[in-house]
């Protein structure tokens, strides 16, 4: 598809659910990032129970994260707060700039590698 | 300072709840919920399970302050619900919270059908308010009188975060109380707020997307960054960079594939060492105290059945129960400290890599390692394992870890096998530990492929901030666990030990004529002046009497009856009696052997080891402890389930007697087969 957008068809999670099914920018797997990278979660293509648990812990679509450590476990810092809409992004996509949020509100989540591989992030 | 929602035309018709008594404490994990619970209820709390579940419930009590609408000194019952991220997750903890808030599950101590709690106290973490607002929103939707405790307010201020309490209260529609539970700040205000608890006048959206948007908007409206002077500026964020970097550095070390394992081993060595060394002091003291109590009973109570029952049965049984207490309290004290620092969550990931191939999770390592001191607290520590099948698998295999009760058996047998070689004794000793670990992991693998089938869930865990641990919280945890142990396991252990005493003591038999004659001769020698030789003869006579008594006791008869079962393992009736008596407690083996073959229960006494080594079977020629027999016994004791108190705790923690029986059956079978193979192989070499 043009402009790097794709239709989530569940192929990233072998049809096990957890995908938004909406137009989104192509995200990369969390495990492809480097320590220190900041990005926005696109979707979590995994078992629905795991996806629900992660979402409740704060790792949800449109959440801003910072990669603290890669490998096993993969540690991400999840920032909470209001996301701003970036008018330059495609509709339905949100982006956030960490410096615009109130300071210090975050949590750290450790993920086993099989889970981290299924978290798609837009950098 | 608290904040209440502004009075509007939408104020609920349900005002302050009359007769307020029961309050449910709800919150995410790591929000300081337990710390707040301890601050409010102190030692006036007890731990048990929610009815029909293995989920722990703590119920505490306090007295509410007087208020215009409440009578003075109204009694508060605080129900500490499990820490959860959402009420809507398909997890047992979330289900329990849903049912308690709906009134369909009564908290322990409450009458069934007592209905929903009178109010909900939601604890939110001010340093992660955005995420915590999700659960708060779900709680508000329950339409119960609600108070929000905004905890860790001190940490949020340190991080440059300012939260407008009034605005938050207005958006939530209920009272918000800033607290620092660790220091006790805000706790009186929380109790006062509970007396004014109202049904919220705001209802957050019901869909997850709507709730997330609501939480984001609420957070954006109430939170702002502070300037260097601590004034809210609303400007760019002030990140406390050095704090983040320190956490990153620590995480890199503690979760490193090599560094993480090394640091974990170092920490666990210290825990282990503390359990063996520090706990040994009060344990020895307890044994000494009860030995004196037993002597006192024997001195005061007239000779007869009552004296035997009190001194030999009850006092010994209570001693055998209470002696576990220092290890249990110390273990949970240390675990609580480690958990509070935030380190344990990192360690769980490190060990998850090692244990996952065997069907266990990283959470299992602390219980398994604790079981090397004693399986009882190790099994109790399994409550921290979130997944049910992981928890059951860990409970089932924990007794394979060589506990301290096995040490006297290992010492006795390794010395018999390698009398003049401390090096090979050490190697054999280490081999016993490794065999136990291997058997445990192997058994876990089998269990996860059969009765507890299913792939373990990949681990995901919130890693709490590193912080200084709370000694108060750790002391409460130690006290709580110790009390739980005494109430539940202690009563079972007491009953078992009394039964064992009875089986080993009755029926009384007349001493053998040979012993009587020897004793009389010894007495005569003493009276004639040959004191040393006379006392030696009297001691020998007493040993013969003891040996005769145990041989003809019920335990001895049972041992001789089952001896054919143990014959393929190379055990004669003497070893069979010792093995049977140690089914209640392993450490009895050494004393039983000393009593049977040497007539004294002091296995470490001078000359006793040599007499045990030289002991002969009934043919008068064959040694009792042939090398093949000693190896067979060693393997048997590594693998066998010989601790009835552990079985009792397994039944309780696993949620049914069937798990304890499964554990007993599997371990006994494995021990028997392995010991059989060892003996039969060695005798053919």
Account of the protein in words:
The complex is a heterodimer of chains A (123) and B (685). With 123 residues, chain A is mainly beta. Chain A has one domain (2-122): Ferrous iron transport protein A (FeoA) (SH3 type barrels), CATH 2.30.30.90. Chain A has helices at 48-57, 113-116, and strands spanning 5-7, 23-25, 28-29, 38-44, 64-69, 74-79, 106-111, 119-122. In chain A, the strands form two sheets. In chain A, strands 3-8-4-5-6-7 form a six-stranded antiparallel sheet. Chain A has a two-stranded antiparallel ribbon with strand order 1-2. With 685 residues, chain B is α/β, with parallel strands linked by helices. Among the domains of chain B are: 22-225, P-loop containing nucleotide triphosphate hydrolases (Rossmann fold), CATH 3.40.50; 512-544. Chain B contains 29 helices and ten strands. In chain B, strand 5, helix 3 and strand 6 (146-151) form a beta-alpha-beta unit. The longest helix of chain B is centred in the middle third of the chain and has 28 residues, at 422-449. Strand 7 of chain A pairs antiparallel with strand 10 (460-463) of chain B.
